[in-house]
Amino acid sequence: MGFVTATADRLTIRNFIETVGIFRTLSSSGFRRFSTYRQATVAATATNTMFGFVRTYVMLAVAGSAVAAGGQVAGYDAPQLVTYVWAGQGLIGVVALWGWTELADRIRSGDVVTDLLRPVHPVLGYLLPDLGRAAYALLTRFVVPVAVGGLVFDMYLPQRAATYPLFAASVLLAVLVCFAGRFLVNAAGYWLLDTRGVLMGWAVCAGMLGGLYFPIRFLPDGLAAAVYLGTPFPSVLQIPLDVLVERDPPAGQLGLLGIQALWAGLLLTACVLVQRRAERRLVVQGG
Amino acid sequence: MAEPSTLAIYRRLVAAQVRSQASYRASFALDLVSNVVFLGADLLAVLVVFYRVPVLGGFSLTDTLLVFGLSSLGFSLADLTVGNIDKMSRHVRTGLLDAVLIRPLGVLWQLLVLDVGVRRLGRVCSGVVVLVIAVRLAEVPVTPANLLLLVVTPLAGAVFFSAVFVATATVAFWWVDSGELTAALTYGGRDFTSYPMTVYGGWFRHLLAFGLGFGFVAYYPALVLLDRPDPLGGPAWLGWCGPLLAAVAAALAALVWRTGVRQYRSTGS
Amino acid sequence: MNVIEAHGLRKDFTVRVRKGLLRRESRAVAAVDGVDLTVRRGELLGYLGPNGAGKSTTLKMLTGVLHPSGGTVAVCGLTPVPQRIQLARRIGVVFGQRSQLWWDLPLGDSYELLRHIYRVPAAEHAARLRRCRDLLELDPFLDTPVRQLSLGQRMRGELTAALLHGPEVLFLDEPTIGLDVVSKQAVRGFLAELGATGDTTIVLTTHDLADIERLCRRIVVIDHGRVVHDGGIDALHARYGSQRRVVVDFDTAPAAVPTLPGVHLEATAGPRLTFTLDGTASVGALVSALSALGGLRDLAVTEPEIEEVIARLYRS
Predict the structure, then answer these.
(1) What is the predicted ipTM?
(2) Is pLDDT at C43 greater than 80 in this prediction?
């Protein structure tokens, strides 16, 4: 008995080391792969910067109009809105809000079957490279717009030291929620012939309800609360931005992170379940 | 290329494209609907802003809606006809460009026609609806001059945005991965023109509104329709400059395009 | 009369090489490096070369897609790039891996559209289409959307599309790639017939040597952008020392084997001997020497495989 247990233990340790190795390899593969798309990164960053200018001026006009009426807009002042816009433009690339169709493409071409041959759970097999990609985007697509915005406009910087780690955690959760959302939308391809409509629906909702076009808090309070709790979209963009500009006191920030964690858990579980159903379908129907 | 039947050939090619896209019935319908929703999202952004504040850059909701309506109708017309040119990078990569080069027709026209975005018709329809509502809400006086301006402005805007689409897509000849860069001036330009120019500050406004000409797409014509003086001090006749500007932009875009094709042929990338 | 005339044709591409983290270096690489090519009317020319040798680039310069970096080129008496539209009406092009058909429409619709694009008179168009329909057996799938066609059906469709405006020159870039045996034969048979009439000049690139043996009397081989062979298949054999092989069976293994100039004993397996013969050695001399040994039961001569010849050519 002892012998068997010992073997099992040793195997577990080795498995663990191997698993860590696979994790590292997969996530750094995502980083390296995206660092070769240099032209695309430059193009996307330039575009984010252009939109940053347009949205900042609109938001400054909104804040100016609110000040004239004697107050803030939905709890934000002008510098907070500036930070909101530029960090938001930077986060688009980090969470990869749009344009991820890799899984849908692989489902259509049938290549997805090879995912089952790898020694990693397929959801992890997509998630880990995505984390590597997000890390690369954080260094490029996030930094550049925020720096430009900071140089040209009066930006709000967090007043509390604790906000920085909270923001980092919030961004990580946002990447997880966004990944899970994209994975699910792509996985619709297992059952639908043409996923373009679903992908487009995701793009509209993620932009509008994620807080990209306007902060969700601009909506009437009840409606805003419903969007935060009832949909995953604010967890993708709006919440990290709220945390960063300290829209709420520390307790409120933690509460927002809680909402994100809830959505991340819920959606990732859904990914695993959907993947299981899809695998059964693949095995039974032979693709 | 001035043979009388060239137009007829292109008409046939467009008809073929419509039949192609309609052959995916469900997807076609879904696309039409989601394109309407897309415009709804832009409109919602304007409405939400005005839910929080009564005026923006000195303009009320109804005035802003008129600017928004003119801009989005012009943009959606351009998007319908030439919007797919932003897939240039893909055409270069997949070799569609080579296939087009071996046919006895103009390269740009073929590319436009081969991929005309019929499903974006939904956006044009909702653009018309928004503009009509905005005109009624802003109580634009019905005079022959105003009616003329209401027809000419979206058309000139369409030509102007088409020129922007073509000129920015041409970058793909030098820079194959430039896909998203196109969006900076096309979609970015649409967002820029959706609000009164008074919203924007300093050099940014000067560069985009006058340097690149986006101010003439919707803002100045809207001032004429609203019979308002320009808070920025421009004369009233600026509102009638749209068509002239569109012609200049189209000529420049054609020049850029020709240079791009020549570049492609000498480098093959 | 020469339909294609190219002298010193070259095409340089700029390649960016990464040196270190930020520094990048641009380097000009010649994809086609001084190709001379003349093709007479009615010739059926095989254009061969390993991957990346410059075949497709040459074809693109001949069809007006790419501008040559140097040299002169004339096709049907026209300069391809400036006279692209005139040239387009007189040539047909099939790219094996991309389509010029309308993906979502029935095959027949593409032909109707092409008739208008190339402004072909209806009667001419109908006559050519009828001929292709018969020879390539298009009728069963003329009403099927192109996206639903098999690769073989599609290629037959592509060939027809390239011929409906009656081109003087037909350029085919790997037309049999990925096809099954039956479809390959159909395409080859059709091209052989088309070539036999002598009206259409055909330039064919392929990796399939059966295409070459079946269709081309003249082959041009390029490697690293330069022409390394231009001539018939026989000339290729002679030049690259192709070896014929003679296999003989005896009743019992012979005690001594005759030695002749240019003849080598390749293998001995019991009563079976295998000889290889250099291009100049005579099979007759070997046979008579062997029969003098007595007990000769069976003899077979195998011709050299073109595949081997080409492989040797690419490696050299």
Answers:
(1) 0.90
(2) yes
